[in-house]
Amino acid sequence: MDYIDVEMPKAGDTVVVGMSGGVDSTLVAMLLKERGCRVIGVTMALWKGDLPPLPNGQKLHGSCYGPDEKDDIEACRKFCAENGIDYHVIDVKDEYHKQVLEYFKAEYRAGRTPNPCIRCNSLIKFGALIKGVEAMGIDYDWFCTGHYAKIVHPSEGLWGTEERPAMIACASDVTKDQAYFLYRIPSKTLEKVRFPLGFTEKKDVFRMARERNLAAAEKAESQDFIPPEYFEELFKDKPSVPGDIIDLDGHVLGRHRGIEHYTIGQRKGLGVSAPYPLYVHSIDAKENLVVLAKDGDLKCSGLVADDFAWPAGVAPKEKFDAMVKIRLASKPVKCTVEPYAPKDGESFNGGAYMVTFAEPQRAVAPGQSAVIYRDGVIAGGGVISRSF
User: Fold this and answer.
1) What is the C-alpha separation between 248 and 297, in angstroms, rounded?
2) Cα–Cα distance for residue pair 77/98, rounded to 1 Å
3) DSSP 3-state assignment of 101?
4) Would the pTM of this model clear 0.90, i.e. be above it?
5) What is the rounded distance in angstroms from the CA atom of residue 32 to the CA atom of residue 197?
6) Could you read off the pLDDT of 180-206 as tens digits, one per residue?
7) Is 367 in contact with 353 (CB distance < 8 Å)?
8) Dihedral of the CA atoms 292, 293, 294, 295 (nearest 10)?
9) Residues 6+ apart with CB under 8 A from 267
């Protein structure tokens, strides 16, 4: 199928730019102002101050959620003031805690590996934040961010329908592509969203930012959802429940300190010695078990996923060929996708689909997202329920 790139903001348009204080969103705001747009900067306020200072003067890694948020807001405020850009801070703390932090903890405690960034993008950054902007009475033509992705329309209707919705496509810079993180944003929302950096290489972003003497060009990029130093603190609201670590044959190898501290494919920090490397193969939340195996035992031929998001809600009814990514860092692999009929005892969140890989994939983790691509465009995606 062919796809058509959407139009970009033009001179005279009013554009709201979601700003983080980083180089990408700061440059987007500057480029749009230079284009003749009326630019309004907005930043999400997430931090509630609910986690204590780190002991022994530890320094934080860059993250989306942390006490250094005030520094990011101040950087955005300063940039906007210097460049004649209106600026607002939108409070989304309560929604973020409910939809992202509580979800994150609940998923780990259920033996799954969540992706909080995907949830944050669909429900907070392109959800609660936009609603907050509209609640302030701000009338705008476009909402822009510094994400590396594109928005396109299919040249023909999806899956035999007349629907030609806005869809997420991969960025030109494949090393920075963030399309995977954005797959759950509704098509209706995408109609007014634009990603001006979708056609730009990251090295050119730094170059353009330095040419404009933007302070953000020298700022380190955030790497984590929360600082890793705060992971333990986040889970202190409930005591961990220790249990057995076993192998695939059921032999007890040791004790774990709570299943929320383990993920599929993990090797370090297991506290188990063996004559060969062992990895987390699976987590049995019902029996409170962590199962270890050799690396070769982590290969899977496919998966079942549910809670699917399809562009415009149009779901395919027949088997089709595609590419799939099972985590952000994985390479797309050829696959077939087809509706999956639940077996006795199985229940799913919405329609489930079976994804069969052309080549076995390692460490498929329930809770992560399986994102489906066709011709470099996201055809849909769901949350991994189980592997096989």
Assistant:
1) 9
2) 27
3) helix
4) yes
5) 11
6) 999 999 999 999 999 999 999 999 999
7) no
8) -80
9) 277, 278, 279, 280
